[in-house]
Amino acid sequence: MTRTVLVCDDDRLVLMSITAALRQAGYSVLEADSGDDAILLARQHKPDLAILDIRMDGKSGFDVAAYFRDYLSQPFVFLTACSNPAEIDEGMSQGALAYFVKPIETPRLLQEVAATLEALDARSEPPATLRTLLDGESQRDHRDWVAAGILMATESLDLHGAISRLADLARADGVSLTAAATRVIQALADRRGSVAERGPLEAGGREASSHPNGRARD
Questions:
Q1: pTM of the model
Q2: Which residues sit opposite 5 in a β-bridge?
Q3: Domain 1-124, second-level architecture
Q4: What is the distance between the alpha carbons of residues 81 and 69, in angstroms, rounded to a whole number?
Q5: Are the beta carbons of 10 and 53 closer than 8 angstroms?
Q6: For a tag on the chain, would you pick the N or C end, based on fewer CB atoms within 10 A?
Q7: In whole angstroms, what is the distance from residue 218 CA to residue 14 CA?
Q8: Closest listed residue to residue 151, CA positions, set 168, 176, 137, 134
Q9: In angstroms, what CA-CA distances link 196 with 46, 88, 190?
């Protein structure tokens, strides 16, 4: 059975890149470049999963997520450049199944979409592969997911390697896994804040090397 994925992003280049990759992977794809369009498409087609940007003109990704949660029971994840811990907390509190920080490599995104759909099918989240790698309170903390995603993207690790790396950081600093995860998230937020303070001319070269479109906006 062909699965349907709704993608909502007001950056047309990002939208085209994601939707093309999903179609090539065999998914049926719905495109929306605004929150209003995403809600309309979700109501009409009831996709298996929605991928939402956060910072958009008009309705934000948070606005769309709230509607999905309250009126449609529509499963969704966030894919966004917003890496501030407060925004991550808000995103997960909206009921997101996962929160991914741009830029993310296409194979990794496809892997995460497939894993999320499998978790939905099994009515179990997080997926068993992640549950077996986490223990205690950290098993239920979304920051571990986010930090693992950051390490997967920045250090070219698979999921197991990212969790192992996070555990190594926790042991080295003598803190819990979730505390180490929080530090990884904050480090990314600080790094992006430093780039923003330097301004586009000074920071442009470095940002272009880390973003497929050479753009710093969400």
A1: 0.61
A2: 29, 49
A3: 3-Layer(aba) Sandwich (3.40)
A4: 22
A5: yes
A6: N
A7: 9
A8: 168
A9: 38, 19, 10
Provide the residue count of the chain: 218
Q: Which residue, 44, 19, 116, is CA-closest to 77? A: 116
**Look-up: residue for tokens 């950056």?**
11
> CA-CA distance, 15 to 41, in Å (whole number)?
15
Dist. CA 109–CA 100, nearest whole Å = 9
Rounded Cα gap, residues 213 and 202, in angstroms: 17
d(CA 123, CA 121): 5
Q: How far apart are CA 110 and CA 99, in angstroms?
A: 14
Q: Are 49 and 76 in contact (CB under 8 A)?
A: yes
Structure-block tokens of residue 199: 């301004």
pLDDT, one tens digit per residue, over 131-145 is 444 443 334 467 777
Output the CA–CA distances (angstroms, integers) from residue 189 to 43, 162, 195, 198, in the order listed. Answer: 35, 18, 10, 15
Question: How sure is the predictor about 129, in pLDDT bands with cuts at 50, 70 and 90?
Answer: very low
Of 67-76, 106-115, 162-171, 198-207, the least confident? 198-207
Q: Are 5 and 51 in contact (CB under 8 A)?
A: yes
- Closest to 90 (Cα-Cα) out of 113, 68, 70, 65: 65
Every domain of the chain and the residues it spans: 1-124, 126-213
The partner residues of 79 in beta bridges, in order of sequence, read 100
